[in-house]
């Protein structure tokens, strides 16, 4: 989505009269190619952001699980109620001793 929006935004910017005037030093001869290049340039930026976001989310879930197992009484102090409810509804049931 970000890559697509970047390409569209750059294309819309390059069709402004400021960039279409051949006498301007900011003249863009091929707005489509510029938009495509900008979209491809946005790919590594978006991927880098998503890698950091994924790592942060995994870390938060790990810390939540660690806190739940080590000191369950303090979970409410450190975790928003919505996240606590969401994680608890998706946890696997605890194995019970059979004998």
Task: Tell me what you see in this structure.
- This protein has helices at residues 2-14, 17-20, 31-70, 75-78, 81-89.
- The protein has 99 residues and is mainly alpha-helical.
- The chain has one domain (2-89).
- Helix 1 packs antiparallel against helix 3.
- The chain is rod-shaped and about 75 Å long.
- The N and C termini lie far apart (54 Å).
- Keywords: Membrane, Transmembrane, Transmembrane helix.
- The chain crosses the membrane at residues 33-53.
Report the portion of residues in β strands: under 5%
Instruction: Determine Rg (CA atoms, Å).
Output: 25 Å
The portion of residues assigned to helices is: over 70%
Structural class: mainly alpha
Number of helices: 5
Question: What count of structural domains?
Answer: 1
Largest sheet: none
Return the string of H and E elements.
HHHHH
Number of strands: 0
- Mean pLDDT equals 87
Name the shape in a single word.
rod-shaped
Distance between the termini: 54 Å
Uncertain spans: none
Keywords: Membrane, Transmembrane, Transmembrane helix
Transmembrane segments: 33-53
